[in-house]
Amino acid sequence: MPTVTKPQPSVANPHRRNIAIIAHVDHGKTTLVDALLHQSGVFRANERVAERALDNIDLERERGITIMAKNTAVRYHDVVINIVDTPGHADFGGEVERTLTMVDGVLLLVDASEGPLPQTRFVLRKALEAGLPPILLINKIDRHDARPGDVLNEIYDLFIDLDAGEGQLDFPVIYANAKAGTATTDLASPGDTLRPLFDAVLAHVPPPAGDPEAPLQALVANLDSSDYLGRIAIGRIFDGRVALGDTIGVCKLDGRTETTRVTKLFVFDGLRRTEVEHAAAGDIICLAGIDGITIGEAITDPETPRPIPPICVDEPTVSIVLGVSTSPMAGRDGTYVTSRNLRDRLDRELVGNVSIRVEDTDSPEQIKVVGRGELQLAILIEMMRREGYEFQVSRPQIVTRQVDGQIMEPIEELVIDVAEEYQGVVIAQLGTRRGTMTQMVNHGSGRVRLEFRIPTRGLIGFRAQFLTDTRGTGILNHLFGGWEPWHGPIAGRPTGALVADRKGPATAFAMSNLQERGELFITPGTEVYEGMVIGENARTNDLDVNVTKEKKQTNMRASNAEEAIRLIPPRPLNLEQAIEFINEDELVEVTPVSIRLRKRTLAANQRPKRAE
Length: 612
Description:
By secondary structure, this protein is α+β, with helices and mostly antiparallel strands. The chain is 21% helix and 31% strand. A hairpin with a 5-residue loop joins strand 11 (247-251) and strand 12.
């Protein structure tokens, strides 16, 4: 009986490979891209290049994480390899989901010591669902605590747990030290270049499929902007060709088709965009000059439009309310302070960020922003602050659902890596936050890995307490794990706040007398106002204090008159710490210069007292 073979999709361009690098945060993706760029000849031998060349946002360089997905391309032999560097933090998972639509394979990076972590599971699940063939690269094999053999077994278990197909389980394994730019397929024979990785990409990532002679069909998966060219759409051509001057159709998300003309066409070449006359199926391109184009829209032939199903991303789970600042110091530092300014900025964010939502509230001066997690929202707020915006922020809230009359709340899969002596206090803390331990692994290195399922609201405000309990040595990672029925009440912050009761500059004399009451957040000379939170009370109640009190002058001499005031160094809060610290009756005042905490109701005689 003759066998029936399925028709194979035609190869659009055998000299192209499109691949995404996916991994957990801080496993070395951007460092690996640096090495690939250097060894493919993108840079001159004497060219000075900054580390993590693709991290071109100030916040990315400061924090050492990738926030936005980036495109680049390298040449190996006669093949152009288009590479997409994706974020590794779960809060920016929307970037991963849409970039996977542009590629034909994934390079899965895993730390040789830490092994697969929550974001590894998330990005791998998305890649397997899309049917993309993986290449496994176990990075940082030079670490003193590297355990590549155990990590490989853990990854096989993860593939099986995610129901990978037989073809996906047959993946090549490469061991690398991205910082040194070396890779090998055999640990017994160390490599001296990344050639084994290049060869694996050519051998195991299929060339892009498509028909260059078919009508045009491309999907916009990313956006960029230029002061000279305006909005730039980045996407992949699935079928057909496009050239300068062509008339194209843009299939909008609401079903309409708009006709426009191609004025600028680019492809990626290293860190640069190179202008070209034409491109065909399989290419990742940049189109400039198309007004109003957004992520998820399709670029097609105007006579035979072929829309593509929109990109689906996971639902956001955490919300925060941004509002016009009502502080007595409002308008001193910011350039953009009105609700119209805030709304315009958030509308621009929606164009390039598919994983957040913006919703109206009862007040026209307040806007609700719904995102993937506290970090994603804090990064957005920090970027707005640096752009000159001034506003106030509420405590994060979770997003709930009603299913069959029952309230459902988001659940996180939490993975914690701590020293053995701290595991007891961490388990106790998570117990009070409705966390349930699912696994405990001790690798014998003095550190323990703990896995929990915990309500998302149980993690709000936990990170600061966790770092305190573990003396800054703990590692915490979490990932959205689904929806479950409401788990019941969770206690909030156990301590109260020290609240200024009048306007004026803080004095060292007053602060020295308040030190025994709790921990201060401000330094002497800081301007305060009534209702401003200046510290954390050691007790559970809020305490109104006079932090502007000055030492009285007198003609009488005393034995302690010349004693210097000794102040304990304050604990200044950054934006994320401030958002985690506040309670429901408090707000964070964000300006380009300062981050201040305040009570929602400023006047002490109108504010409800917090019980002891």
